[in-house]
Design brief:
Helix content is 30%, strand content 22%. It has two domains: 1-140 and 342-363 and 388-400, Rossmann fold (3-Layer(aba) Sandwich), CATH 3.40.50.720; 144-314, Dihydrodipicolinate Reductase, domain 2, CATH 3.30.360.10. The radius of gyration is 20 Å and the shape is globular. By secondary structure, the protein is an alpha/beta fold. Helix 4 runs parallel beside helix 5 and helix 5 (117-130) runs antiparallel to helix 10 (366-383). The strands form two sheets. The chain has an eight-stranded mixed sheet, covered by helices on one side. The chain has a six-stranded parallel sheet with strand order 3-2-1-4-5-6, sandwiched between helices. The structure holds NADPH dihydro-nicotinamide-adenine-dinucleotide phosphate and ligand LJPVP2WV. Ligand LJPVP2WV binds at residues 197, 296, 328-329. One of its GO terms (molecular function) is nucleotide binding.
Length: 400
């Protein structure tokens, strides 16, 4: 067998998820059965200081010769970087991704991809013009669990999917946790709120089960009806959002399919860590597929068929041995002992694309990411939520 190819990553930003991602990146792909590629980290950049970038490299166990930069510009200019992972707040993704693409770098960008669909269209155009890979880091789509769920649907196990319920909500106690309103979860300047941060996963489940499973030429945009409740203390960020979607389908494909995607910073999908309530329910005439919380990192599915069959499956993340020590920000460690976090699946997809010259992710291409941004735009329009002009703009460069 040919020896594995190594992809050299540059990490743009040094916050919470950048750390988790980088630790997962450094787990040997052979531990999850991936033989044809390897990852390494050759550089990281902080927008605030070189020392912060150096601390990040030390903390994540990056190779000793990895470069620490005190600006994102230096990172994207580094000729040793094959691909850039962007882990800044939502507000900054458009500017940061454009910076990397302009510098000729392929990009894996954290969710939500951008603040609005227009920004993403511009990034997609730029990636096309420069012939560069661009993908949204919706890691859940790349889990073996998600692949299994999609296969159950396309194999007709429950019949044509007629309805999906998808929730990703956390009782965050925002007035206590994010008292001063500056945290990215509630800060309008950083495109805070439930929808872009958590609701994107509810929509991910809706789209990967009702839309992505359709033949490409049968996929049609849904009609959207939304209700939004604002988070009172910071005003321009949603606390709870509920979206009803209707996907047009031909009669042969089962007719129109409905979905309800919900998200909240006030109430939880699974109160007190109780994970017995499925947050995702995918329903067809033959039964339903249930996915247990959290929607962004599920490890358990159940299939319940009309004939009484019940199939439970566990999907532990393979591990480096020590786990990446991830905490969910609300106190609980969600990684079991010895597990990785699971961000390596999307990293493998991106690295494979770079090696093989593909320009988009296989399980969520740019058109689908744009459509999901359009749904979020529509939900914000109906809910009356706009963000400050400087982060909604497509003007590049804009100083944030
Ligand atoms: N896939 C997943 O499971 C998760 C994804 N995310 C996504 O990752 C992104 C980052 O989230 P998270 O790591 O929690 O955020 P953090 O606040 O922990 O980190 C954000 C990073 O962005 C850099 N940054 C640049 N400009 C700013 C600014 N004006 N304000 C704040 N930070 C700034 C920071 O500094 P510096 O440049 O110095 O590093 C910081 O390191 C978001 O898009 C979020 O939705 C978050 C959590 C989980
Ligand atoms: O992507 C995410 O998943 C985990 C959550 O805790 C976090 O807020 C969100 O950004």
């Amino acid at each position: 067998m040919a020896s594995p190819k190594t992809v050299r990553w540059g990490i743009l930003a040094t916050g919470g998820i950048a750390k988790t991602f980088t630790k997962d990146l450094l787990v040997d792909p052979a531990t999850r059965g991936v033989q044809h590629l390897r990852h390494t980290v050759v550089a990281a950049a902080s927008s605030s200081s070189v020392s912060r970038a150096q601390d990040f490299l030390n903390d994540t166990g990056a190779p000793a010769d990895a470069k620490a930069y005190g600006s994102y510009q230096e990172l994207v200019s580094d000729p040793n970087v094959d691909i850039v992972y962007i882990a800044t707040p939502h507000s900054h993704h458009y500017q940061n991704a454009m910076l990397a693409l302009e510098a000729g770098k392929p990009v894996l960008c954290e969710k939500a991809f951008t603040v609005n669909a227009e920004q993403l269209r511009k990034l997609a155009d730029k990636a096309k013009e420069k012939e560069l890979f661009l993908m949204e880091a919706v890691w859940t789509r790349y889990f073996p669990l998600s692949i299994y769920v999609r296969e159950q649907i396309t194999s007709g196990r429950i019949g044509p999917v007629a309805r999906v319920f998808a929730d990703n909500s956390m009782a965050c106690d925002p007035e206590v946790q994010w008292k001063d309103g500056t945290n990215r979860m509630v800060n309008p300047e950083l495109a805070g709120g439930a929808l872009l941060d958590l609701g994107i996963y509810s929509l991910t489940w809706v789209f990967q089960t009702l839309y992505h499973t359709q033949p490409a030429d049968a996929r049609k945009p849904p009609k959207v009806l939304a209700a939004m409740k604002n988070y009172a203390p910071t005003k321009q960020a949603d606390e709870t959002t509920t979206i009803v979607l209707s996907f047009p389908r031909s009669h042969q494909a089962g007719g129109d399919a409905h979905a309800i995607a919900t998200t909240s910073l006030r109430v939880a999908t699974s109160p007190a860590g109780n994970q017995d309530v499925p947050g995702i329910r995918i329903q067809g005439p033959g039964g339903e597929i249930q996915v247990f919380p959290p929607a962004f990192r599920p490890t358990r599915t159940r299939i319940v068929l009309q004939d009484g069959t019940v199939e439970d499956k566990d999907w532990p993340q393979p591990g480096p041995g020590e786990g990446s020590g991830w905490r969910n920000g609300f106190g609980a460690t969600t990684n079991a002992e010895g597990e990785g976090h699971g961000m390596f699946w999307e990293a493998d997809e991106a690295a494979d694309a770079v090696i093989n010259g593909r320009k988009e992710g296989r399980y969520e291409g740019l058109d689908e990411s744009i459509l999901i941004m359009e749904v979020m735009d529509e939900a914000r329009k109906q809910g009356g939520l706009t963000y400050p002009d400087k982060i909604e703009t497509t003007k590049y460069p804009t100083q944030l």
